[in-house]
Every structure is written in structure tokens, then in C-alpha cells.
TrEMBL record:
The keyword Transferase applies. Transmembrane segments: none annotated. One of its GO terms (molecular function) is nucleotidyltransferase activity. This is Nucleotidyl transferase. The lineage of its organism: Bacteria, Pseudomonadati, Pseudomonadota, Gammaproteobacteria, Chromatiales. Residues 2-118 form the Nucleotidyl transferase domain. InterPro entries: GlmU-like, MurU, NTP_transferase_dom, Nucleotide-diphossugar_trans. Keywords: Nucleotidyltransferase, Transferase.
Length: 230
């Protein structure tokens, strides 16, 4: 199974840190955010990785290269200065991802999720990893009913930005800029999205404050209970 890291976001909420640096290249502790993900994927047995990029994307390629340093092969899907949103970015990268299911990760998260567990093809069109609702997003995204994800219902959980998708999810899409959420909601209506509730560490590093909290926690102890839920 191949993996894809989404690194094309402009990071407006992270300014001024992202004025000259792509958000996934920001440091937390001793490494850049995207490096934690790459190393975790390599440890879990992933050998092929696709990374999309847009704003300041040349820095991503210059920093990570072909992935040899991390023990993984990296290929890139450039999207120009503005980017294609999540759905459009994945769709453009499909020729690099192939015909089998693939794992997709947001490039601005930190997690201890065991990615070896993600190397399973979904029973439907997608499999989403859901987490507790953080304080800044109490309404959550989706409901988990057994192993099926529903667009409506309660209790609700937050989509972690980690999912496994079949290329068929994008069968009726066209090149260009479009979001992923409508595709997932349509598939949920067909009963074709499975999910799991992950209770481990997960951080959405979307603002300077959250980045600072993560860095403080990493410096203190990688294994200590997380004092923040951001």
C-alpha cells in the first residue's frame, strides 16, 4: 500500500510562521512536522510515499529529496501556487498512487497512531480514523455506528485527517480544485465508509499556540500523558 501526505495548504492560521515556510516543514521538538509522519510510515513498513505541495512547495522537495534519508521513496505532485484542495489534490495524484487502496494523511498533524494497522484495504470506498473532539471543535464531524461512519447522528467524533481510500471514490471526479468532504458524505449515504475510534495521541497543529504546546510536550516526554487536547 502507498501513502500520501497532504502538504499543499497555505497555513493562513499559522502566520507569520508560514510566511516563508510551508506548514509541514515547521519544527516541533527536534524535527519538522512532516518528518514525524514520514518516519512513522517507514517504521510501519510503507515504502512508497506521494507528497503534494503548492505554496512554497519547492522547499518541501529540497528538504525531503527522494526520501532515501528516511528509508522510503518519495514522489511529488505539484499543484501550482494556489493548490487544489484535498479532493482535487488526491485526484491529481492518483496516477502516482496506483489502482490499489492508499493511505492519506494531513501534513499538519502529529500522532502516535500505529500506521501498520492502516495497511488494510477498506471494505467499502473509504476507512476513516476518528478521534475525540478537541476543545476548539466540539461539534465534531461524523458519527461512528459500530464500524460504519455516518454523516449525521450522535455522538460525534472528529475526523483525524487520516484515511484509507479506494481510487473508485474519485471515479466521477474531474481535474481541478474541489474538497474531499462531499465525496465522503455521498459514500457514507451508500454505507461505503467504515471507521475506527482512535484514543491515542493526536494533535492538529493548526495555529502557533498549538505548535508551541506540542513542542513543549515533545521536549518534556514523548510518552507522558498529553496535558493538552488541541
Amino acid at each position: 500500500m502507498k501513502a500520501m501526505i497532504l502538504a499543499a495548504g497555505r497555513g493562513e492560521r499559522m502566520r507569520p510562521l508560514t510566511d516563508n515556510t510551508p506548514k509541514p516543514l515547521l519544527r516541533a521538538g527536534s524535527k519538522r512536522l512532516i518528518e514525524y509522519l514520514i518516519e512513522s510510515l517507514a517504521t510501519a513498513g510503507f515504502t512508497e510515499l506521494v507528497i503534494n505541495h503548492a505554496y512554497l512547495g519547492e522547499q518541501v522537495e529540497q528538504m525531503l529529496g527522494d526520501g532515501e534519508h528516511y528509508g522510503i521513496q518519495i514522489r511529488y505532485s505539484p499543484e501550482g501556487e494556489e493548490g487544489l484542495e484535498t479532493g482535487g489534490g488526491i485526484f491529481q495524484a492518483l496516477p502516482l498512487l496506483g489502482e490499489e487502496p492508499f493511505l492519506v494523511l494531513n501534513g499538519d498533524i502529529w500522532t502516535d497512531y500505529p500506521f501498520a494497522r492502516a495497511r488494510r484495504a477498506p471494505t467499502g470506498l473509504a476507512h476513516l480514523i476518528l478521534v475525540d473532539n478537541p476543545p476548539y471543535y466540539p461539534q465534531g464531524d461524523f458519527a461512528l455506528r459500530g464500524e460504519r461512519v455516518a454523516a449525521e447522528g450522535a455522538p460525534r467524533l472528529t475526523f483525524s485527517g487520516m484515511g484509507i481510500y479506494r481510487p473508485e471514490l474519485f471515479a466521477h471526479c474531474h481535474p481541478g480544485r474541489f474538497p474531499l468532504a462531499p465525496l465522503l458524505r455521498e459514500a457514507m449515504g451508500q454505507g461505503s465508509v467504515s471507521g475506527e475510534y482512535y484514543r491515542g495521541q493526536w494533535w492538529d497543529v493548526g495555529t502557533p499556540a498549538r505548535l508551541q504546546h506540542l513542542e513543549q510536550w515533545l521536549q518534556a516526554s514523548r510518552r507522558a500523558p498529553c496535558p493538552y487536547r488541541f
